[in-house]
C-alpha cells in the first residue's frame, strides 16, 4: 500500500513539473539586447524555427512517402541534389518570404540570390537548408545551418551580393538545427550559445542547453581519414598525435551538423583540410563555415583556416569554399602550432633557396 502511494505521488509530481522556457519566450526576453531592433530579428528566428518544424515532420516520414534518394540534378556546388534538399530549400524560402523580415536569401541549392520581394526588410539570410541529406536514406542525423546579416544595401531595393559578403564578424545571428534522435535548434546572437529541443506533442522548442560552453580540452577528433595520405604533414602529425593520446578517439559520421554538435558539447576538434580534389577546402564559407565558427567562438572554442580565425576571412564570392578547423582551445592551439612551424620551415627553405 505504501509503495503504491509513493509511486502515485511520484507520478503526480512528474505530471506537475514545469515544461521549461519556450523558444518564443526566450527570444522575447533576449530582444532587449538589440537596441536597434524592433522585433524583426526575433520574428526572423521564429520563422526559421517554424520551417525547421516542417522539415522535422518531412524527415520523420521520409521513408513512407518516397522522398528519399537523389533528385537527378546538381546544385551550384556540382553535388547531386537529394529530394529532401529541394523540399527543405522550398520550405525555408517560403517561411522566410512569408515572414516578411528578409529581403534576400542565399542558399546552397541556388546559383543566385533569391529575392523575396520584401524590399523594406532589414535582413538577409545565408543557409544550407539540409546538410548531409544523402544520409537520410540510412537514418543518420542531418541538419540545417543558417547565418543572418543586417543588409548594407539601401532599404527599398533588392538584395545584392554585398549584403552577404560582409564577413563573419558582421553576423547578427547564426546557428543550426540538428534532426536526430531529437531535433535541436542551437543559435547565437553574439551573447552566448543556447540550445532548444523540439517537443513534438506540443509543437514547441524548449530551452534544454542553456549557455553552452565548449570544454577547453577534448578527446575527440573528427576527420575523414580516407584522405589521410592527401593531408599536409602538419595535419598528419596532428592526427597521429591525437591517436597516441590516452582516451582520444576518432568520431566521424560525415554529417557536418552532427559531428559539430557532438564536439561542441563533449569537446574535440573538427577538421576539413585541403585535399587534391579540394585544394581550397570543401565547406562553404558563407553558410557553413561562418555560422559554425560564430557559434563555436561564442561557446569558448576556436575556429581556424590555417592562418587566421574563420570569422576574419574576407569573402570573395557568395559560394566560396574554405579550409576549416573548429574545436576546443587546447586541440586548436596544438593544431595552430603545427601549422605555424610548418609555414615557418617553408619560408626558411625558400629564403635559403632550397
UniProtKB/TrEMBL annotation:
<keyword id="KW-0460">Magnesium</keyword>
<dbReference type="InterPro" id="IPR000146">
    <property type="entry name" value="FBPase_class-1"/>
</dbReference>
<feature type="binding site">
    <location>
        <position position="131"/>
    </location>
    <ligand>
        <name>Mg(2+) 2</name>
    </ligand>
</feature>
<protein>
    <recommendedName>
        <fullName>Fructose-1,6-bisphosphatase class 1</fullName>
        <ecNumber>3.1.3.11</ecNumber>
    </recommendedName>
</protein>
<dbReference type="GO" id="GO:0042132">
    <property type="term" value="F:fructose 1,6-bisphosphate 1-phosphatase activity"/>
</dbReference>
<keyword id="KW-0963">Cytoplasm</keyword>
<feature type="binding site">
    <location>
        <begin position="131"/>
        <end position="134"/>
    </location>
    <ligand>
        <name>substrate</name>
    </ligand>
</feature>
<dbReference type="InterPro" id="IPR028343">
    <property type="entry name" value="FBPtase"/>
</dbReference>
<dbReference type="InterPro" id="IPR020548">
    <property type="entry name" value="Fructose_bisphosphatase_AS"/>
</dbReference>
<feature type="binding site">
    <location>
        <position position="128"/>
    </location>
    <ligand>
        <name>Mg(2+) 2</name>
    </ligand>
</feature>
<comment type="similarity">
    <text>Belongs to the FBPase class 1 family.</text>
</comment>
<feature type="domain" description="Fructose-1-6-bisphosphatase class 1 C-terminal">
    <location>
        <begin position="214"/>
        <end position="337"/>
    </location>
</feature>
<feature type="binding site">
    <location>
        <position position="108"/>
    </location>
    <ligand>
        <name>Mg(2+) 1</name>
    </ligand>
</feature>
<feature type="binding site">
    <location>
        <position position="128"/>
    </location>
    <ligand>
        <name>Mg(2+) 1</name>
    </ligand>
</feature>
<feature type="binding site">
    <location>
        <position position="288"/>
    </location>
    <ligand>
        <name>Mg(2+) 2</name>
    </ligand>
</feature>
<feature type="binding site">
    <location>
        <position position="224"/>
    </location>
    <ligand>
        <name>substrate</name>
    </ligand>
</feature>
<feature type="binding site">
    <location>
        <position position="282"/>
    </location>
    <ligand>
        <name>substrate</name>
    </ligand>
</feature>
<dbReference type="Pfam" id="PF18913">
    <property type="entry name" value="FBPase_C"/>
</dbReference>
<feature type="binding site">
    <location>
        <position position="130"/>
    </location>
    <ligand>
        <name>Mg(2+) 1</name>
    </ligand>
</feature>
<feature type="domain" description="Fructose-1-6-bisphosphatase class I N-terminal">
    <location>
        <begin position="22"/>
        <end position="209"/>
    </location>
</feature>
<keyword id="KW-0119">Carbohydrate metabolism</keyword>
<comment type="subunit">
    <text>Homotetramer.</text>
</comment>
<dbReference type="InterPro" id="IPR033391">
    <property type="entry name" value="FBPase_N"/>
</dbReference>
<dbReference type="Pfam" id="PF00316">
    <property type="entry name" value="FBPase"/>
</dbReference>
<feature type="binding site">
    <location>
        <position position="252"/>
    </location>
    <ligand>
        <name>substrate</name>
    </ligand>
</feature>
<keyword id="KW-0479">Metal-binding</keyword>
<dbReference type="InterPro" id="IPR044015">
    <property type="entry name" value="FBPase_C_dom"/>
</dbReference>
<keyword id="KW-0378">Hydrolase</keyword>
<comment type="pathway">
    <text>Carbohydrate biosynthesis; Calvin cycle.</text>
</comment>
<feature type="binding site">
    <location>
        <begin position="270"/>
        <end position="272"/>
    </location>
    <ligand>
        <name>substrate</name>
    </ligand>
</feature>
Amino acid at each position: 500500500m505504501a509503495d503504491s502511494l509513493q509511486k502515485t505521488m511520484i507520478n503526480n509530481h512528474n505530471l506537475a513539473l514545469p515544461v521549461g522556457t519556450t523558444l518564443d519566450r526566450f527570444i522575447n526576453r533576449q530582444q532587449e539586447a538589440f537596441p536597434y531592433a524592433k522585433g524583426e530579428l526575433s520574428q526572423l528566428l521564429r520563422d526559421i524555427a517554424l520551417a525547421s518544424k516542417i522539415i522535422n515532420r518531412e524527415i520523420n516520414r521520409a521513408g513512407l512517402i518516397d522522398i528519399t534518394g537523389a533528385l537527378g540534378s546538381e546544385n551550384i556546388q556540382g553535388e547531386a541534389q537529394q529530394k529532401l534538399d529541394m523540399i527543405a530549400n522550398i520550405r525555408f524560402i517560403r517561411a522566410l518570404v512569408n515572414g516578411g523580415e528578409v529581403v534576400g536569401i542565399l542558399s546552397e541549392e541556388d546559383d543566385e540570390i533569391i529575392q523575396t520581394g520584401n524590399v523594406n526588410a532589414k535582413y538577409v539570410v545565408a543557409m544550407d537548408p539540409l546538410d548531409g541529406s544523402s544520409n537520410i536514406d540510412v537514418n543518420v542525423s542531418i541538419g540545417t545551418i543558417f547565418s543572418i546579416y543586417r543588409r548594407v544595401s539601401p532599404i527599398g531595393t533588392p538584395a545584392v551580393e554585398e549584403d552577404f559578403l560582409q564577413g563573419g564578424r558582421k553576423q547578427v545571428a547564426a546557428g543550426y538545427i540538428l534532426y536526430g534522435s531529437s531535433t535541436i535548434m542551437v543559435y547565437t546572437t553574439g551573447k552566448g550559445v543556447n540550445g532548444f529541443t523540439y517537443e513534438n506533442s506540443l509543437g514547441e522548442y524548449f530551452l534544454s542547453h542553456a549557455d553552452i560552453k565548449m570544454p577547453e580540452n577534448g578527446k575527440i577528433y573528427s576527420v575523414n581519414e580516407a584522405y589521410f595520405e592527401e593531408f599536409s604533414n602538419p595535419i598528419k602529425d596532428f592526427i597521429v598525435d591525437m591517436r597516441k593520446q590516452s582516451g582520444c578517439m576518432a568520431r566521424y559520421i560525415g554529417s557536418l551538423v552532427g559531428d559539430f554538435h557532438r564536439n561542441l558539447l563533449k569537446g574535440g576538434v573538427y577538421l576539413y583540410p585541403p585535399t587534391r580534389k579540394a585544394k581550397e577546402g570543401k565547406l562553404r564559407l558563407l553558410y557553413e563555415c561562418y555560422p559554425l565558427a560564430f557559434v563555436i567562438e561564442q561557446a569558448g572554442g576556436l575556429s581556424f583556416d590555417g592562418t587566421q580565425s574563420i570569422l576574419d576571412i574576407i569573402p570573395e564570392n557568395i559560394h566560396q569554399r574554405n579550409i576549416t578547423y573548429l574545436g576546443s582551445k587546447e586541440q586548436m592551439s596544438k593544431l595552430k602550432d603545427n601549422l605555424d612551424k610548418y609555414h615557418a620551415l617553408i619560408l626558411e627553405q625558400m629564403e635559403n633557396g632550397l
